């Protein structure tokens, strides 16, 4: 029986020379004043082979205010000047509390500058527009990106939560290639597989950063019979390879030929560590499709 090809532990970010891990760690709940605890989380990610760290200016807003996650990471960089060089740093901007979105050139330019200040770094490896701003022309977004790249503030650019057409419109206005797209993707939300997002990613060589790869907690407690069917299939594979349900979910995402990068969101070191078990799972097409059918809640034609 044929199996899906093995997922590399390292890969490049789009067409750049930026090498990243095939699993990322996300900081949407990264906050607080305990530097030792914060560093333990970063080290747990390193120990799991993770080098791609995903944050945003709005991350931590519910716990410590706008910019909280970036500020905490910046404090870690200030405490250990070698830490920055060990990771690929990704952040995002464009969400404005009460607005809700602003991708005007002036705002994005200022947002990038403020992120650099919070993070206490001179350059961001990957910067993404967090949500599409319908009221900003793609040419204006492109202008902000060009300015930041020419100034050496950002190495590469991508988008988050954008549709296929929104990505195409922005790419048409840019003199360089976008390198990433960040959709919500999990065995509980397969829309990007079916709506053309992953096909576009393969066509344009976009790295797909999959947020909420565990379904926003649904992997722990199903809310519908369909979600329970997904859990049952994940558990069957977990038992076969003696790994956690979460590790199986990560590996299922990574097995798609677009090679999506699941973003681990846990703030517990042992949960971050188990992400590395995703590489132990070998999928047959039959098993992968069983999860997919359970996710759809309907048989394939």
From TrEMBL:
Classification via Gene3D superfamilies: NADP-dependent oxidoreductase domain
Gene Ontology CC: cytosol
Signal peptide (from-to): none
Ranges where the NADP-dependent oxidoreductase domain occurs: 23-288
UniProt-listed Pfam families: Aldo_ket_red (PF00248)
Protein name in the entry: Aldo/keto reductase
Source organism (scientific name): Hankyongella ginsenosidimutans
């Amino acid at each position: 029986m044929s199996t899906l090809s093995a997922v590399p532990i390292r890969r490049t970010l789009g067409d750049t020379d930026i090498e990243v891990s095939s699993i990322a760690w996300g900081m949407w709940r990264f906050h607080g004043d305990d530097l030792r605890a914060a560093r333990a989380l970063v080290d747990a990610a390193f120990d799991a082979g993770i080098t791609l760290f995903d944050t945003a200016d709005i991350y931590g807003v519910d716990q410590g205010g706008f910019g909280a996650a970036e500020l905490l990471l910046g404090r870690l960089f200030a405490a250990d000047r070698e830490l920055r060089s060990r990771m690929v740093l990704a952040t995002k901007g464009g969400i404005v509390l009460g607005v809700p979105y602003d991708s005007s050139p002036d705002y994005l330019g200022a947002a990038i500058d403020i992120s650099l200040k919070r993070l206490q770094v001179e350059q961001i490896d990957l910067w993404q527009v967090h949500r599409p701003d319908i009221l900003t022309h793609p040419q204006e977004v492109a202008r902000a990106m060009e300015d930041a790249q020419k100034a050496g503030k950002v190495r590469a650019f991508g988008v988050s939560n954008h549709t296929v057409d929104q990505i195409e419109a922005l790419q048409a206005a840019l003199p360089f290639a976008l390198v990433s797209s960040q959709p919500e993707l999990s065995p509980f939300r397969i829309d990007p597989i079916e709506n053309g997002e992953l096909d576009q990613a393969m066509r344009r060589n976009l790295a797909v950063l999959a947020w909420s790869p565990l379904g926003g907690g649904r992997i722990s407690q199903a809310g519908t019979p369909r979600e329970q069917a997904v859990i049952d299939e994940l558990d069957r594979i977990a038992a076969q390879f003696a790994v956690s349900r979460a590790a199986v979910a990560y590996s299922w995402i990574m097995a798609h030929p677009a090679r999506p990068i699941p973003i681990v969101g846990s703030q517990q070191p042992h949960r971050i560590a188990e992400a590395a078990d995703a590489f132990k799972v070998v999928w047959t097409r039959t098993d992968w499709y069983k999860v997919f059918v359970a996710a759809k809640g309907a048989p394939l034609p």
